[in-house]
Amino acid sequence: AVVSTQSTGISLQPSYRMRFLLCLALLGVGAAVAQMPDPAAGSRTFLYQLQMGLKMWVEEGSVFKPNGMGFSSAVSTGASFVKTDICRIKHPVAKNHESAILGVACKAAFVGLYEDKPQCGAFLCDLIETLEGDAPLEFFEAFLGATTDDDAFQVIEDHIFTPLMEWNCDCTLDVLDTFMGCKSNMGEAKILSVNMAGLAGIDTNAPYQKGKGFNAFWSEFIDTTIPWSSIRTVVDRFTANVCSNDNRGDKCYSYFFDTVTKLYQWYMKSTGLKPAGRSSASRKYDSSCTTFNMEVVATGGFTDIKEALVNKMCVDECSGLYQDTLFGCCTANMIQDNELTGGLEDLATDLKDLVVDTFDYSEEEANAMFSLYMGYATEALGMLRNPTCDNGVSYDMIPCGADTRDGEEGEMSPCAGLKGKKKKKCEAAEQEGSGEEEEGGSPCDGLKGKKKKKCMAAQEGDSGENPCAGLKGKKKKKCMAANPEMA
User: Fold this and answer.
1) What CA–CA distance (Å, rounded) separates 67 from 48?
2) Strand partners, 251
3) What digits encode the pLDDT tens for the residues 393-437?
């Protein structure tokens, strides 16, 4: 509208300049509103630092737009190319078209997988569409809104970990097998052509090609150089273990997530970082059980770290906590899976040979990358298969669902299902009871330390010393029953 007066002839109609400034102001307000929310955790907590780091990463716009809604311009071009090419798998007509990324044979193979298992065959398309949608912003806002460590881990579990593991259990092997069945035809994919590689800024005549053309080198690399057999063994056994059920009927991947959560709490306590909210860590055990010397971890070698951990794990008062948190049946599944551990060793050897033979790494460099750490892992796995301490502390590495019966077939041990001190107490009572039934059982059975040594010494020779001296209660009655002459 135009507001004017006849006396002055002044028009109050907004000028173009004012309109432009008004638009800028509105855009500025909109941008301010669209910024990531501030961290909700206390400013002195470690969670606040993590939240602030996430907020700054999103707002710098390197991967997502600063408001968290959609890819940044640096990523959107590549994502759009992949989406346009791969999402044709879902299209009733375009599914028959050639794929620049997969070629003809692999495109047809994944169309077949999509028709059988939609969530598996078009997983890359679904992933890009998810990341382009509201899911990232929902996660960012939920994580930044967490006020406690437990809340933050719950957000990660709900938004990322559980959906990823559910897909892993349903699809990983199918996707891998589908690709392994068509990988020999990857040479027909246009993405491996010299022209497309050049547009992407890739060196098409690198020294490691050793005179082979770009397409020929990478086709052969994908088909035969990559150690697919070892990879499949590791993926197969890893997936089978994390996707199996524990003794309570929950998935093992949930057990491992809980383990990571507790290790985070122990790390916080050991480093003196301030937790957010009341920790859910068990308070049944002494605080020393969850406090570790991080200086050894940071500066010590493998041997130093191993000795420190062994000493920690051999503390009797803490063994129940470590049994529950670290050595549950899901851990036993992984540790005692010889096919998995053998596959990891084979994969490390294959990768070492690959970087030496294909990319001209020296043996020393390859050993530093693979052999050294594989040796550490092998030694650690050997210890974990039978974790026993010199002081008698031991851990049960029983796979989930394993038969824990003792004695005659069909007779379940009364100690099955117990852990830590309760199990040790039950087993001691069982040993004491069995000693009463066995003819000639030693009256010192069930005793420990100085009392056992004293009892055993009294049993030797005819010194006339009362072998029951110093005993009390049931143990003394048992000893007196075995030595009626002392009554």
Assistant:
1) 19
2) 245
3) 989 889 998 754 443 333 334 454 444 555 556 666 656 554 444
DSSP 281: S
Q: Could you tell me how many helices (H) and strands (E) the chain has, helices first?
A: 23, 0
Collapse the DSSP code of 405 into the 3-class scheme (helix H, G, I; strand E, B; otherwise coil) and give the result: strand
Tens digit of pLDDT for each residue in 41-62? 999 999 999 999 999 999 999 9
**Does residue 89 contact residue 121 with C-beta atoms inside 8 Å?**
yes
CA angle 123, 260, 314 (to 5 degrees): 145
Span 460-470, mean pLDDT?
Answer: 55
Sign (positive or negative) of CA dihedral 269, 275, 278, 281: negative
**Per-residue buried b or exposed e for 359-390, using 16+ beta carbons within 10 Å of the residue's own CB:** eebeeeebbebbeeebeeeeeebeebeebeee
- pLDDT of 178 strictly over 80: yes
In whole angstroms, give the CA distance from residue 424 to residue 433. 14
Residue count of the chain, please give it. 487
Long-range contacts of 416-422 (CB under 8 A, 24+ apart): 417/247, 419/320, 419/323, 419/324, 420/319, 420/320, 420/321, 420/323, 420/324, 421/319, 421/320, 422/320
- Nearest of 82, 33, 45, 317 to residue 189 by alpha carbon: 82
- pLDDT at residue number 309: 85
For 468-478, what is the mean pLDDT? 63
Please check whether residue 344 is in contact with residue 377, taking contact to mean a CB–CB distance below 8 angstroms.
yes
Neighbour tally for 351: CB within 10 Å: 18
pLDDT at residue 391 greater than cutoff 70 = yes
Alpha-carbon 128 to chain mean position? 23
pTM value? 0.74
Both tokens of 52, joined, read 């602030």
